[in-house]
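Board notes (copied after class):
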Amino acid sequence: MAKLTLRVNDVKLSLKQEKTLRECVAKKLGIRPGAITQCTVLHRAVDARHKDNVCLLYHVAAEVDVPSGFARKLLGRNGVTPYAKAVPAAPQLGTVPLTERPVVIGAGPGGLVAALELARYGYRPILVERGRALSRRVED
């Protein structure tokens, strides 16, 4: 038996049927539901293009136990690929020390994340935000 972790895209789960997500993944893979040892949702969306048949679409990571010869057949199916959890790489730091503190313009989501990462690496960023005072903006 081979233990594989697969990414299975576009698994449809109709709101009208009483199947579980595991059963729908097994059907798409052509295996029995008991062969799936773990199923993790990576992405979920609603397909409401047809009002009489609203579906949930899933991309899942499924860990399966299948015979060794069947593994290659699974990978040949449409929407099925090997899955390996991505580990974010640490940023490469420069070798030249900064003479001034870095400036981050904008306290939106991107600016806050950038300032946080710079602070984690000890750069003491200056965060500049344009606009009215925070107390007045909260009222908006």
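Comment from the instructor: The radius of gyration is 24 Å. Residues 109-120 form the longest helix (12 residues).
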